[in-house]
Specification:
The structure is a single chain. This protein is an all-alpha fold. It has a domain of 137 residues. It has 9 helices and no strands. Helix 2 runs parallel beside helix 8. The longest helix has 33 residues. It is globular.
């Protein structure tokens, strides 16, 4: 009816893939540890939005351009790397100390910026686009005429399972955040550590090949 083959297998495989740490996971953990639960949750929602954007592009066939074109892949890759480096450097240079009650201390979290950063981090990762192109079609009936519907259903399912897992991670990381706030010496370096992680992710993406 929906053109999906072996949905149970897809569900299990998708969950296992979501449990595997990747760039998105490290981004969410960094934001959760450095800025708390709200930042972590916003990052999760941003990553989920990026995943849905990739799903839509893959369903419409636009992501194939990235997979087939060396220039398009390179442009997206370096754009994503530069953006992660920018976020990482800003966090590394931030001298403010941790405050688990940040929303009550007068320093408000910029929700729009956090959400935007997460969306762009995911969307500008060409490996994510290639993953959706390579993974989802394996569970779609090639004889099914409306190829967009099964693509969207599988992508939404994958995004939901990933979002649930990432929310668990974000809450765990923010719990660590609340415990670390009393350790002033450690807390003063935590932003630098998380910033360094994001810088490393940016470098990793920049050095990523198409295969």
């Amino acid at each position: 009816m929906t053109g999906i083959l072996h949905f149970e297998t897809f569900l299990i495989a998708g969950i296992l893939l979501n449990l595997t740490p990747g760039n998105d996971t490290l981004f969410i953990l960094s934001k959760s540890i450095a800025q708390g639960r709200k930042a972590g949750t916003l990052s999760v929602l941003g990553i989920a939005t990026g995943s849905l954007i990739h799903t839509t592009l893959a369903a419409l066939g636009l992501s194939i351009i990235i997979a087939k074109s060396v220039l398009a892949f390179t442009i997206v890759k370096y754009a994503g790397a530069v953006y992660l480096l920018y976020i990482g450097v800003r966090m590394f240079a931030d001298r403010s100390k941790l405050d688990a009650n940040i929303s009550m201390s007068g320093k408000k979290i910029d929700a729009v910026k956090l959400y935007r950063d997460a969306v762009l981090t995911n969307v500008l990762n060409p490996k994510v686009a290639m993953f959706f192109i390579a993974f989802l079609p394996q569970f779609i009936d090639p004889g099914y005429q409306n190829s967009i519907l099964p693509f969207m259903l599988l992508g939404i399912t994958f995004t939901i399972t990933g979002t649930i897992w990432c929310l668990v991670l974000a809450n765990f990381a923010s719990y660590l955040f609340s415990k670390l706030r009393s350790h002033q010496k450690l807390s003063s370096y935590l932003n630098k550590i998380c910033g360094a992680v994001l810088i490393a992710l940016g470098v990793k993406i920049a050095l990523t090949g198409r295969k």
